[in-house]
C-alpha cells in the first residue's frame, strides 16, 4: 500500500487496487530488480508527498523523469542539489529571470516551489536510466490522468503545460474556473525555435491567484 501521508491517500486509495496499478506494480518490481531505474523507488511519489491536494495552487506537467544518473527525484524538471542543472531547467530559469527578475539559483532543486503548492507532476513517474520514455504505456498515465481529473474538480488552479505531450492533457481540464497556460517545451530543441520564452508563466500564475485572494508563489529558490 502506498502511503503519501496527506489527502492524496484517501483520494487515490481506490487506484492502488485496480488491475492497471497491480500490473504496473509487478512491472516495476521486476524493473527495479533488473535495471537501473530513475528515480529511487522511495522518491517516485515525491510530487504528491510534497504537495497535498488542498495545497495545490499550480500544476507544472512534465513527461517522464530525467534519465541521467542521479538526476530524477520525483519532481518534474527538478534535480537534487549538487547535480548540474539540465538544459530544460536552465531555460525555465531564464524565462523566470526575464519574467520576474529573479536570478537563476545555484542549483536545480525545486522543492521550494513544491512546498508552496506547485505540483511538479510527470505523467510517467519512472524510467530506465539512459532510456527516455522506456516506462510509457505501462499504466502510469492512467494514474496521473486521474490525478489531473481530481484537480480539475477544484477551482482556482493554474495548469502550466509545456510541449505537445503536456498540452494533450488539455482535454481533461474542463473547469473554466482554472487557468491553463501553454508553451513549447523548454528543451533547447523546442524553446529556441520560439513559443516558450516571453509567455510570462510565473507572473501570470501569481496574477491569477492574487485576483482570487490567494497568496502567490514566491518563485525565488534558496
How would you characterize the overall build of this protein?
The protein has helices at 8-11, 19-34, 46-50, 87-100, 111-115, 140-152, 163-167, 188-191, 201-211, and strands spanning 37-38, 58-62, 118-122, 127-128, 158-162, 179-183. The model has no long low-confidence stretch (mean pLDDT 96). The protein has a 4-stranded parallel sheet. A two-stranded antiparallel ribbon has the order 1-4. It has 9 helices and 6 strands, in the order H-H-E-H-E-H-H-E-E-H-E-H-E-H-H. Helix 7 links the parallel strand 5 and strand 6. The chain has 222 residues and is an alpha/beta fold.
What value does the Rg take, in angstroms? 17 Å
Give the termini distance in whole angstroms.
34 Å
- Main beta sheet, described? 4 strands, parallel
Q: Report the count of strand segments.
A: 6
Strand coverage percent? 5-15%
> How would the global form be characterised?
globular
Helical run tally = 9
Q: Which parts are unreliable, with pLDDT below 50 for 5 consecutive residues or more? A: none
Task: Indicate the mean pLDDT.
Answer: 96
Q: Report helical residue fraction.
A: 25-40%
Question: H/E series, N to C?
Answer: HHEHEHHEEHEHEHH
Q: SS-based structural class? A: alpha/beta
> Numbering strands along the chain, what is their spatial order in the largest sheet?
3-2-5-6
State the main characteristics.
222 residues; alpha/beta; four-stranded parallel β-sheet; two-stranded antiparallel sheet; 9 helices; 6 strands
How is this fold's topology laid out?
Layout: H1 8-11, H2 19-34, E1 37-38, H3 46-50, E2 58-62, H4 87-100, H5 111-115, E3 118-122, E4 127-128, H6 140-152, E5 158-162, H7 163-167, E6 179-183, H8 188-191, H9 201-211
Parallel strand pairs: 2-3, 2-5, 5-6
Antiparallel strand pairs: 1-4
